[in-house]
C-alpha cells in the first residue's frame, strides 16, 4: 500500500523489461511482416517507451531530477524534490500530483499532497516522496570505507575496495538511482544481443494455496503482462515462419517433384511442395525470403506427413538391403553349386 524509492526502482526495471518484451515480440513481429511484403492488418498496442522516458530521460526524467536535487547546494528535502517534479512533469500524461497545479488532480483526495502517482504499464502506482533524497544519496563516507579497508579480516577488507588509499577518488560517488539506471542499461544491452524466451508466471491466488483460482487476480495479470496484445498479434499473424532453403530441405521428401533433388530456386520448390500437398492457399503466404504458415495445425500436418514419410523411407531402405543381402547369398550359393557339380561330374 505504501511505495517508496525501492519500489520505484523495481517498477522502473519492470518497465524496461516490458519495453524490451514489446520490441522483441509485438513490434518486431509486425515489422517482419512489412519487411517480407506480407499483407497484414496492423494491430495497435500500447508502447510503454513514454513511461520509461518519464523516469530515465537525462534532462527531464524523474531520476535526473532526483540526482539534481541531491547534488545542488542549499537546503534539499523530499518536498523540494516533489516541487521540482511538479514543475517539470506537470503536463506529462502519466504523471499525477495534487501539487502540480493541474486541475485534474487538485480535488483528488485519494492522492495525498506528499505523494506523486505514475500510470505504469501495469496500472497506477502512488509513491511517498519521504526518503527519496536520502535513499538516492546512499553515501558511505570516505573515512568509514578507509577504516573498513584497514581491517585485519580479509573479507571485510575485500568488501570495501574503495577504501584503498591508492584508489582514492575525489569525485562524488554516483547516486543509487544512477547506479541502478546504468545497471539496467547494461542488462538491456545484453538482452538485445540474445534470443530470449519469455516465461510468464501467473499466480492463481494470493494465499499460495492449491485448487484456489482467483479470476480477478488472474485477469489482472493477463492484461498487464502484455499477453492479450501478444495473443492478438499471433492470432492475426502467422504461427510459423522459416527461410525457403531449410523449409524445402526438411519437407522435400513429401513431394515426388522435389524428392530427392530439386533443381531450381528454393521458393519455387516450396510452392510446388505445398501445391502438391494441396494445402489451402489461405494457410500460407510467400515472403521475400521466408514462407509464412498461419495455422499451427498446418505445421502439425506437415510434421505428421514427414514422420510417416521417414518411416516409409526407412522401410524401403530395409527392404532393399534385405533383398540385396538375400540375392548376394543366393548368387554365392549358385556359384558354389556350379563348382561342386562340375567337380562331381569330372570324377563320376
UniProtKB/TrEMBL annotation:
<keyword id="KW-0505">Motor protein</keyword>
<dbReference type="GO" id="GO:0005524">
    <property type="term" value="F:ATP binding"/>
</dbReference>
<protein>
    <submittedName>
        <fullName>MYO1B protein</fullName>
    </submittedName>
</protein>
<keyword id="KW-0009">Actin-binding</keyword>
<feature type="domain" description="Myosin motor">
    <location>
        <begin position="1"/>
        <end position="307"/>
    </location>
</feature>
<dbReference type="GO" id="GO:0005737">
    <property type="term" value="C:cytoplasm"/>
</dbReference>
<dbReference type="GO" id="GO:0005886">
    <property type="term" value="C:plasma membrane"/>
</dbReference>
<dbReference type="GO" id="GO:0005902">
    <property type="term" value="C:microvillus"/>
</dbReference>
<dbReference type="GO" id="GO:0006897">
    <property type="term" value="P:endocytosis"/>
</dbReference>
<keyword id="KW-0518">Myosin</keyword>
<dbReference type="GO" id="GO:0016459">
    <property type="term" value="C:myosin complex"/>
</dbReference>
<dbReference type="InterPro" id="IPR001609">
    <property type="entry name" value="Myosin_head_motor_dom-like"/>
</dbReference>
<dbReference type="GO" id="GO:0005903">
    <property type="term" value="C:brush border"/>
</dbReference>
<dbReference type="GO" id="GO:0007015">
    <property type="term" value="P:actin filament organization"/>
</dbReference>
<dbReference type="InterPro" id="IPR027417">
    <property type="entry name" value="P-loop_NTPase"/>
</dbReference>
<keyword id="KW-0067">ATP-binding</keyword>
<keyword id="KW-0547">Nucleotide-binding</keyword>
<comment type="similarity">
    <text>Belongs to the TRAFAC class myosin-kinesin ATPase superfamily. Myosin family.</text>
</comment>
<dbReference type="Pfam" id="PF00063">
    <property type="entry name" value="Myosin_head"/>
</dbReference>
<dbReference type="GO" id="GO:0000146">
    <property type="term" value="F:microfilament motor activity"/>
</dbReference>
<dbReference type="InterPro" id="IPR036961">
    <property type="entry name" value="Kinesin_motor_dom_sf"/>
</dbReference>
<dbReference type="GO" id="GO:0051015">
    <property type="term" value="F:actin filament binding"/>
</dbReference>
<feature type="region of interest" description="Actin-binding">
    <location>
        <begin position="184"/>
        <end position="206"/>
    </location>
</feature>
<dbReference type="GO" id="GO:0030048">
    <property type="term" value="P:actin filament-based movement"/>
</dbReference>
Amino acid at each position: 500500500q505504501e511505495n517508496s524509492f525501492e519500489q520505484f526502482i523495481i517498477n522502473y526495471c519492470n518497465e524496461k523489461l516490458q519495453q524490451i518484451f514489446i520490441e522483441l515480440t509485438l513490434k518486431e513481429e509486425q515489422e517482419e511482416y512489412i519487411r517480407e511484403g506480407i499483407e497484414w492488418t496492423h494491430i495497435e498496442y500500447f508502447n510503454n517507451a513514454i513511461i520509461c522516458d518519464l523516469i530515465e530521460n537525462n534532462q527531464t526524467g524523474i531520476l535526473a531530477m532526483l540526482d539534481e536535487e541531491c547534488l545542488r547546494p542549499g537546503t534539499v528535502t523530499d518536498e523540494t524534490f516533489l516541487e521540482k517534479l511538479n514543475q517539470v512533469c506537470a503536463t506529462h500524461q502519466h504523471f499525477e500530483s495534487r501539487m502540480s497545479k493541474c486541475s485534474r488532480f487538485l480535488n483528488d483526495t485519494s492522492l495525498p499532497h506528499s505523494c506523486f502517482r505514475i500510470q505504469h504499464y501495469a496500472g497506477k502506482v502512488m509513491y511517498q516522496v519521504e526518503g527519496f533524497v536520502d535513499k538516492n544519496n546512499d553515501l558511505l563516507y570516505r573515512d568509514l570505507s578507509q577504516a573498513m579497508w584497514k581491517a585485519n579480516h580479509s573479507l571485510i577488507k575485500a568488501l570495501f575496495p574503495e577504501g584503498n588509499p591508492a584508489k582514492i577518488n575525489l569525485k562524488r560517488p554516483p547516486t543509487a538511482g544512477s547506479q541502478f539506471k546504468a545497471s539496467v542499461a547494461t542488462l538491456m544491452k545484453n538482452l538485445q544481443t540474445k534470443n530470449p524466451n519469455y516465461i510468464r508466471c501467473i499466480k492463481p491466488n494470493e494465499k499460495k494455496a492449491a485448487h484456489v483460482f482467483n479470476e480477478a487476480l488472474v485477469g489482472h495479470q493477463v492484461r498487464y503482462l502484455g499477453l492479450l496484445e501478444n495473443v492478438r498479434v499471433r492470432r492475426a499473424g502467422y504461427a510459423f515462419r522459416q527461410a525457403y532453403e531449410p523449409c524445402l530441405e526438411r519437407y522435400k521428401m513429401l513431394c515426388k517433384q522435389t524428392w530427392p533433388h530439386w533443381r531450381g530456386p528454393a521458393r519455387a520448390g516450396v510452392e510446388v511442395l505445398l501445391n502438391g500437398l494441396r494445402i489451402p492457399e489461405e494457410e500460407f503466404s510467400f515472403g521475400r525470403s521466408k514462407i509464412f504458415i498461419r495455422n499451427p495445425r498446418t505445421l502439425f500436418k506437415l510434421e505428421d506427413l514427414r514422420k510417416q514419410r521417414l518411416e516409409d523411407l526407412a522401410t524401403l531402405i530395409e527392404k532393399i538391403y534385405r533383398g540385396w543381402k538375400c540375392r548376394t547369398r543366393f548368387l554365392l550359393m549358385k556359384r558354389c553349386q556350379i563348382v561342386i557339380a562340375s567337380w562331381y561330374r569330372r570324377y563320376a
